[in-house]
UniProtKB/TrEMBL annotation:
InterPro entries: Signal_recog_particle_SRP19, SRP19, SRP19-like_sf, SRP19_arc-type. Part of the signal recognition particle protein translocation system, which is composed of SRP and FtsY. Archaeal SRP consists of a 7S RNA molecule of 300 nucleotides and two protein subunits: SRP54 and SRP19. Keywords: Cytoplasm, Ribonucleoprotein, RNA-binding, Signal recognition particle. It comes from the Archaea. Involved in targeting and insertion of nascent membrane proteins into the cytoplasmic membrane. Binds directly to 7S RNA and mediates binding of the 54 kDa subunit of the SRP. GO terms for molecular function: 7S RNA binding. This is Signal recognition particle 19 kDa protein. Its main location: cytoplasm. GO terms for biological process: SRP-dependent cotranslational protein targeting to membrane, signal sequence recognition. It comes from Haloferax denitrificans ATCC 35960.
């Protein structure tokens, strides 16, 4: 079983690529939350587990992370790109 981790920094439009953003600036959103990310992961079709007490190593604030379970059929990059698209849709 592959378990992927998605941090809010991966989708944060206020961060640069070197600061941890993994999606294009056009797909990123301002201040994504773990709740939005988990909802988007479920919309994509995977199981999501929120861990609120975790911190991305490049950040000082604890914003949490989302574990993506049962994603054996997709790469991490595919999952992050799809989640970014859904978070953008949820914000509209």
């Amino acid at each position: 079983m592959v378990e992927n981790v998605i941090y809010p920094a991966y989708l944060d439009a206020s961060l640069s690529r070197s600061e941890g953003r993994r999606v294009a600036q056009s797909a990123a959103v301002e201040e994504p939350t773990v709740d939005e990310i988990a909802k988007a992961v479920q919309q994509v079709g995977y199981d999501a587990v929120i861990e609120r007490g975790k911190r991305y190593s490049r950040e000082f604030d604890t914003r949490g992370r989302v574990l993506v379970n049962n994603a054996d059929d997709a790469t991490k990059n595919d999952i992050v790109q799809a989640v970014a698209a859904y978070v953008g849709i949820l914000r509209d």
